[in-house]
Write a structure and sequence with these properties.
It is a single chain. The protein folds into 2 domains: 31-58 and 211-285, Phosphorylase Kinase, domain 1 (2-Layer Sandwich), CATH 3.30.200; 72-209, Muramoyl-pentapeptide Carboxypeptidase, domain 2 (2-Layer Sandwich), CATH 3.30.1380. The strands form 4 sheets. The chain has a 6-stranded antiparallel sheet, covered by helices on one side. The chain has a 5-stranded mixed sheet with strand order 5-7-8-10-9. Strands 3-13 form a two-stranded antiparallel ribbon. The longest helix has 16 residues, at 100-115. It contains 7 helices and 15 strands. It has 285 residues and is an alpha+beta fold. The structure holds zinc ion. Residues 125, 153, 158, 160, 206 line the site of zinc ion.
Length: 285
């Protein structure tokens, strides 16, 4: 009898794999992660220069790592002058700026929330240039703000989202985003309980765009950007399938002045630096 139970458990274990997760959220979108995946073998090796380390969706910018000027988004727009982009949410004031492509992803997210009856969103802050960040740092002090070039707001991919109804940790908007923002490529960047890792107090309003494959892995595995980038360095590759679309994510270190990375032929891929020692290639399989 015991042998039978053991064999049964073994079969179950083998058929699922230890590092294999399948989850379904309320909307029935299916996410499957394999974090013992192999990097793509087909394709061609190309050389990536060191400058690429400082550009892309996955740049780590915090107290330890300053952004490099080439990391700042080139598509920053002033939202009050682009009313075509501002639909279904408000702006705190006329000064809000953000990367246009990030605004488009944010708008899709707002539309998704509206379908669930959550619709009182406000953007309180987006892109800040170095002077503005410097002023904020001097006004607020180091407990509440980061020095110039050390804040994600200087990249143009982060935004402080508010609700017109309540504080974000109590508002429906905050609760909805916490659960669903990863489906749209955003992460809650400074979560509760991760203060030691991020170095920043819990901020229920601060969201950062990283891209859909990465946000989903971080959400499913409860990782901050710091932890995710660390994990990629220790893993051959991670693959994730979201609603039938598979992505394979591989880290490559920069050795000397360049890295050699494998990119597929005839498939879409993105390359992003981590802002310190390597690049991450995301292949759309
Ligand atoms: Zn913020």
């Amino acid at each position: 009898m015991r042998k039978w139970v053991f064999a049964f458990l073994l079969v179950i274990l083998l058929s699922y794999g230890v590092s294999h997760y399948v989850t379904k959220d309320a909307d029935d979108s299916k996410v499957e992660i394999d974090d013992a995946s192999e990097p793509p073998q087909d394709g061609q090796m190309i050389s990536v220069s060191k400058e690429q380390v400082y550009q892309g969706d996955l740049l780590l910018v915090n107290t330890d790592y300053a952004l490099h000027p080439e990391g700042i988004r080139s598509d920053i727009v002033s939202l009050s002058k682009r009313q075509d982009l501002v639909k279904g949410y408000g702006l705190l004031d006329q000064s809000v700026q953000l990367s246009e492509s990030v605004v488009k992803s944010f708008s899709k997210m707002v539309e998704g929330a509206k379908e669930d009856g959550v619709e009182h969103f406000l953007i309180n802050s987006g892109y800040r240039d170095a002077d503005k960040q410097d002023q904020l740092y001097r006004d607020m002090g180091h407990d509440y703000a980061l020095p110039a070039y050390h804040s994600e707001h200087n990249l143009g991919v982060s935004l402080d989202i508010g609700s017109t109804e309540a504080k974000m940790d109590e508002a429906e908007e905050g609760k909805w985003l916490k659960k669903h923002s990863a489906e749209y490529g955003f992460i809650l960047r400074y979560p509760k309980g991760k203060e030691e890792i991020t170095g920043i107090q819990y901020e229920p309003w601060h969201f950062r765009y990283v891209g859909v494959a990465h946000s989903a892995i971080m959400q499913e595995q409860d990782l901050t950007l710091e932890q995710y980038l660390d994990k990629l360095k220790q893993t051959k590759a991670i693959s994730i399938t979201i609603d039938g679309q598979k992505y394979t994510v591989t880290y490559y270190p920069i050795v000397g002045d360049s890295a050699t990375v494998n990119v597929p032929q005839g498939k879409r891929y993105d390359i992003s630096g981590n802002n310190y020692d390597g690049v991450i290639v995301t292949v759309y399989e």
